[in-house]
Each structure stands twice: as structure tokens, then as C-alpha cells.
């Protein structure tokens, strides 16, 4: 699989089969992903890979917790700005409409959306998950390093025939994750990433993207840069 194919075939998959992911595959992916770039080569990512009975336990605790309406954990970072201006608000709205529309959930049915969102804490059925932490003393550039690292992981997973779903949702229940992975005290959870083989029977439509002219500006009048 070439890089374009990996990039274009990566999607946030929200339906996995229970086929286990071999440890050696995860090892290979994470060994290669370690070559992701980071400012001054800090490599500020800390990963916990959870599978098997540990993941089953975590899923069951987290799903039960969310389903019973327990309070979320205190936030260590805001997932989104409190007010989203244009064009981000519209993009977020379009995403939610598409995601929940594909599940047959009517616009405005907040309760049904919340019920569907609970699948986050079941890792959408995936048999493996990564939890990506960062030292809370790190700054914005190091958080960006985490993004580059995680995209590298997700592309390498494609090369192995696997799919993934990055999930900040897990940061809302970070204490439940901590009870399973016991992170070092300085670390804070950025997100989880569910990993597995896609259940193609329930494939959701692909998300869209803004036109390139909306997000990219070429400066200069020559074709050769
Ligand atoms: C940092 C990050 C956090 C995300 N958190 C969640 C999440 O908690 N739950 C979820 O279902 N999808 C989550 N997503 C997936 C996005 O919704 C998805 O990437 C976006 O809608 C674009 O769709 P695509 O990845 O299928 O192309 C997250 C993605 C990123 C990059």
C-alpha cells in the first residue's frame, strides 16, 4: 500500500469485528511509528496498549459509567473552544448530521445521539486500543507532535490491513482508563485509539472535506517551488 492509499483509505471506523489483532503487528506498527518527527526529537508521546481481558474490563466499566449518567472526569484540557465560529461550527454540524443520520437518528434527538455515542466506550467493538498520554508540563508544540505521531500510527495500521478510530471521548473518563493502565503521575490522557478489523457490513459514509482553496493558500507566481 503506498502512502496515498494509506491516507485516503484511513477513516474513523466505528464498527469493528472481534478478530484479535496480533501483538507482533502492533509491535511492528509502533516500532515504525516511533520515527514520527517531533520538535527537538522530544518524542513526547507515551502509549499504553490495552487488549484482551484488560480491555474488556475497561470497556465494561466505562460503558456502565457513561450509561448510568455518572459525572465526567474534570477536564485537563478543553476539547474544543467554548464557541466555535464559522467555518468550524458548520463543519462540526455537518459531521454530526452525517454521523447520526447514517444511524437513522433524527435531527434533534439528543437522547438517541447520546445512546449512540456510548459505543465510544466499547471501542466500537474493537479488540485493541491505544491510550496516548503526554506529560502535562508540555506545551502546544508537543501536543502537535502527538498528532503527527498518531497519524503515523493510523497510516501504518492501514498498511497492516487494520483500521482505527481516534477518540478524545476517552479523556472524559480518564480516571477509568488510569485504573487499568496506571499512567505515571505526570501524564495526562490526550485520547484513545480503537484498533481492529473493520466490520464492513455496517460501513458508514465517508466524511467530506473542505475544498483545498478553503484551507491552502499558495503564495508566489511560479509552479516550481
Ligand atoms: C483528536 C481526535 C479526536 C477524535 N475523537 C473522536 C471521538 O471521541 N469519537 C469519535 O467517534 N470520533 C472521534 N474522532 C474522529 C473524527 O470525528 C474524524 O476523524 C472526523 O470526523 C473526520 O472523519 P474521518 O477520520 O473518518 O475522515 C476524533 C478525531 C481526532 C483527530
Write the layout of secondary structure elements.
Layout: H1 3-9, H2 23-33, E1 46-51, H3 52-67, H4 88-102, H5 110-117, E2 128-135, H6 140-159, E3 163-167, H7 174-181, E4 187-196, H8 212-215
Antiparallel strand pairs: 1-2, 2-4, 3-4
Helix pairs in contact: 1-6, 2-6, 3-7
The overall number of domains is: 1
Radius of gyration: 18 Å
Number of strands: 4
Mean pLDDT: 96
For the largest sheet, list the strands in their spatial order.
Answer: 1-2-4-3
Order of helices and strands: HHEHHHEHEHEH
Quaternary structure state of the chains depicted: single chain
Please identify the top-level CATH class: Alpha Beta
Q: From the 3D coordinates, which CATH architecture would you assign?
A: 3-Layer(aba) Sandwich
**Helix run count:** 8
Q: CATH superfamily membership, which one?
A: NADH Oxidase
Shape: globular
Q: Please give the largest β-sheet.
A: 4 strands, antiparallel
**Helicity level, as a percent range?**
25-40%
Strand content: 5-15%
Distinct ligands, ions and cofactors found in the model: flavin mononucleotide
Structural class computed from helices and strand pairing:
alpha+beta
Which fold name is given in CATH as the topology? NADH Oxidase
Q: Regions with pLDDT < 50 over 5+ consecutive residues?
A: none
Amino acid at each position: 500500500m503506498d502512502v496515498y492509499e494509506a491516507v485516503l483509505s484511513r477513516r474513523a471506523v466505528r464498527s469493528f469485528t472481534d478478530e484479535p489483532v496480533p501483538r507482533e503487528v502492533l509491535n511492528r506498527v509502533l516500532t515504525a511509528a516511533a520515527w514520527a518527527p517531533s520538535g527537538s526529537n522530544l518524542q513526547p508521546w507515551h502509549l499504553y496498549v490495552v487488549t484482551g481481558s484488560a480491555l474488556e474490563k475497561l470497556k465494561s466499566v466505562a460503558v456502565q459509567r457513561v450509561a448510568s449518567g455518572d459525572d465526567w472526569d474534570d477536564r485537563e484540557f478543553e476539547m474544543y473552544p467554548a464557541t466555535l465560529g464559522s467555518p468550524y461550527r458548520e463543519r462540526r454540524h455537518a459531521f454530526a448530521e452525517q454521523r447520526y443520520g447514517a444511524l437513522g437518528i433524527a435531527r434533534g434527538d439528543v437522547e438517541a445521539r447520546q445512546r449512540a455515542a456510548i459505543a465510544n466506550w466499547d471501542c466500537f467493538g474493537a479488540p485493541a486500543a491505544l491510550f496516548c498520554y503526554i506529560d502535562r508540563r508540555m506545551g502546544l508544540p508537543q501536543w502537535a507532535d502527538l498528532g503527527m505521531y498518531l497519524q503515523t500510527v493510523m497510516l501504518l495500521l492501514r498498511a497492516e490491513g487494520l483500521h482505527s478510530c481516534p477518540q478524545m471521548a476517552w479523556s472524559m473518563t480518564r480516571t477509568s482508563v488510569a485504573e487499568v493502565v496506571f499512567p505515571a503521575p505526570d501524564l495526562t490522557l490526550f485520547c484513545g485509539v480503537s484498533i481492529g478489523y473493520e466490520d464492513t457490513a455496517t460501513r458508514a459514509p465517508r466524511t467530506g472535506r473542505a475544498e483545498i482553496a478553503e484551507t491552502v493558500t499558495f503564495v508566489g507566481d511560479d509552479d516550481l517551488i
